[in-house]
Write a structure and sequence with these properties.
Udp-n-acetylmuramoylalanyl-d-glutamate--2,6- Diaminopimelate Ligase, Chain: A, domain 1, eleven-stranded mixed beta sheet, UDP N-Acetylglucosamine Acyltransferase, domain 1, alpha/beta, homotrimer
């Protein structure tokens, strides 16, 4: 429970008072459907404004340009230049999700956890039950290591990082500060590299590189990120990866990239800063994508991209061109018939 | 071991005696190749009938319309209007798989499991080794919680549900009765929602919704299902999800849907009842698919579907139209040459 | 640290002395960028030769045909008919990765592991913390079972196999010698098989088959392989599967196949020996692919392949034809306009 006054004081750049009593307290953020009479709704999109106004909510945060001169409501109204950002910072500070960050016992370190005698844990580190922490692991202050997770030898984890349950982090990796890694994810597994003899047998090429997650990196659930052959696989600062993807050995993902679910990246590729991709997109091996590239869903980057912009398709095209290509596909059977008719008209025979 | 008489008595609607001695006992269901002289074969498809007749099996369950007047065999023959359903119910009752449902020690609750003091376990619940169960979790009668699984605070699990080993279920979720969740699956992870500041940094939008699995829902291995932002992500009653898929925040999967492997569903979408999809299909975000829709494999639903029927492709088309589109693709190089020839014939130059 | 003389003596067929002092010792394999003055570089591709020559490395292994008569370097130069294979065997023998194969405590069997009283462990088996091993499991000599992994009843694992942390292996499976299974992988989960009643409810068809991994099979991270209905799902000797794929019930993968990441195989299919596929390819159900087939990335095998060779696309074509089809796709909007123009020229109207 927090007063609206406190919210406007906490985030003066993001929250401006428009109308109503700031001394009222809100109990929870909500959407319109679920709102109670003490809820606050962050209206990210003007199309949801009317629904929010009609809801039971006590307070709304609305886009600043939605509060026109004739705007009137009996709710407490705050305006924001960025209601989505306001939602994030207000919720993270005042309504944090904590049920997944608790210690399960009186002590911070669960009695069933195995922490190697040479591992070093920072202050206020929570180790949930059945965690396994190998030799020489270093874990920074205020980290949470979720139940049944395993961190192999020599890996270093920065302050404030949250490793959810059932995560695997292989040996010698470096995880930055304030990272988050979700369940069933594998970081630092050996890359898929083999040599072959003349009989067709395959021999593993050992991988000595690590995986580096820089600060503020989030990795979703059921992800796999392989270590590099000699150099490291690197996810740069602030990149956010959704669930259920795979990044192969020696890859780099640029700073502040947004990688949605189902991503697949073959070995030794590099995508630049602020990369954004739709679901189930892929990047082929040994190629580079420059900074500030956006890729539509289900696309396959099969050649280097050297110019910022929007792209899509397979083969990869500009987004605009690919939209036209996609629109043509359903017309192909008709096009084929038309060409047959033209050939007949002209008396052109098949070769 | 069960007599054929007992089978016909147990499932009188599904199993009718056609010929042979019902007092014989069968030891195991089988296919034709592996059958022993005490096996029973369920012939789902008439094309496998001759192989079953030639096998060593003692008894066959055959489609009722396969037993024509001149049908003759020295095996015990039962007929069924639905041999596949007969196989399910007979096998589930008389030949259940139980090796994955056992307690590993004398007690039902393994000594190495961590069960929080505030958790409530029903009757005959089996908790395998190294399970972690958080505060206020409620587990119904006759559930099995597999080794190394983790169930976070406040989650409720209905009677008879089988959680396999190494499953993660986040806090505050609701799992119905008689559900089954396979290994390496994550239920209730935080949705992929971020806001962005003007510098391109991303801020998590906390997710307060849960994941609801209604009764009789099966989830395969290596699946991820994210919790909703405010409302819940819901998998409705009787839906069966194969392995290796991802369902994002705020989604709904309709009752009795059959979702095969590799499915990907972006946020805030809804598919109706009896949805059926082929492998590696996907549904884009913020759209609705009505009841009774079937999608072919490797399809991408990129717009709402409002009419029941069969669909396929990317962009999505009717199944019949997409079949034609797919058939045209290999012909494109030829089509291109033909158009070039026509242009030449007509003296049409490139613009 | 090993002398170059020892290397040439260990692998006389693969390493020939070309120039420089064989009594020098190398400390680590490397690439050119990270090389120190005691490093050895394996130059797999002549295009990387100059970079290796310019690096700090002490020694190079170069392709035998790269050492022409005028070749000169102050480094120690070895030649090889197969530098990649030389890299594998030298690294595996002299620079093995061992940090993921250690016991975490003084004893080989971690005190927190649960090993059922009826399980049989071979000599020098390492069981890391919190492992769960069920009744009648047999584990061969020199195996490593990673932290938090679970092996259900009756499964047999051959000598020298390395199960990484957080792997699930279901009951009654057989894992060969010298296999490797990476984290978050599920082997032996129940197949996706259901029967249906007239009301649209689904009933599980129990699966009695197992999963067999023959010797020298590697499975990547976050993989799922389902058990067969009656027969077994089989991955034949020497096959190497990358991360993040799914193989359904009753499938077979041929000997020495190379299956890259994101593979999806529907039920009851079979691919032959030496199958090679690019990323995110798929094989539909109930069909067979003969020996020695190569499939390009993002392809879908939708019909049987009976002739060895290279294939690609969806629908599947020869690789050469599919390359042409893919090249045509971006041209479709232009092709469509051309046909419209031709129709206008000829006075052909739409039907």
């Amino acid at each position: 429970m927090v007063t609206l006054l406190e919210l406007t004081k906490s985030f003066p750049d993001l929250l401006k008072h428009y109308s109503g009593d700031l001394n009222k307290s809100v109990t929870n953020p909500s959407d319109a459907d679920l709102a109670r009479d003490s809820s606050i709704i962050f209206v990210q999109n003007p199309k949801y404004l009317q629904g929010a106004l009609n809801s039971k909510a006590m307070a709304l945060v609305i886009p600043e340009n939605s509060a026109t001169s004739d705007f009137d409501s009996d709710k407490v109204i705050l305006t924001s230049k960025n209601p989505a950002l306001a939602q994030s910072v207000v919720c993270l500070k005042h309504f944090p999700v904590t049920k997944n960050k608790t210690s399960y016992q009186d002590s911070l370190i669960a009695s069933s956890a195995f922490v190697h005698s040479t591992a070093k844990l920072g202050k206020s580190v929570i180790i949930q039950p059945n965690v396994v922490i190998g030799p020489n692991v270093v874990i920074g202050d205020n980290c949470v290591i979720g139940a049944n997770s395993c961190i192999e030898a020599d890996t270093v984890i920065g302050e404030g990082t949250h490793i959810h349950p059932q995560v695997f982090i292989g040996h010698s990796c470096k995880i930055g500060k304030n990272c988050e890694i979700h369940p069933q994810t594998s970081i630092g597994t050996e890359g898929y590299g083999y040599s072959h003899d003349e009989k067709g047998n395959h021999y593993r090429i050992p991988h000595y590189g690590a995986v580096i997650l820089e600060d503020d990196v989030h990795i979703g659930a059921n992800y796999s990120i392989d270590r590099g052959t000699f150099k490291d696989t690197i996810i740069h600062k602030g990149a956010k990866l959704d669930n259920h993807g795979h990044i192969a050995h020696n890859c780099e993902i640029g700073e502040n990239s947004l990688v949605t679910a189902g991503f697949l990246m073959a070995g030794s590729g590099k995508v630049g800063k602020n990369f954004v991709c739709g679901g189930r997109s892929a990047v082929a091996g040994h190629l580079e994508v420059c900074d500030n590239v956006m890729i539509s869903g289900v696309s396959n980057v099969t050649k280097p991209i050297t110019k910022p912009g929007k792209y899509g398709g397979f083969p990869i095209q500009s987004y605009a061109d690919n939209t036209k290509t996609l629109a043509t596909l359903p017309l192909l059977p008709k096009l084929r018939k038309e060409v047959a008719k033209i050939k007949k008209t002209l008396g052109i025979s098949d070769d």
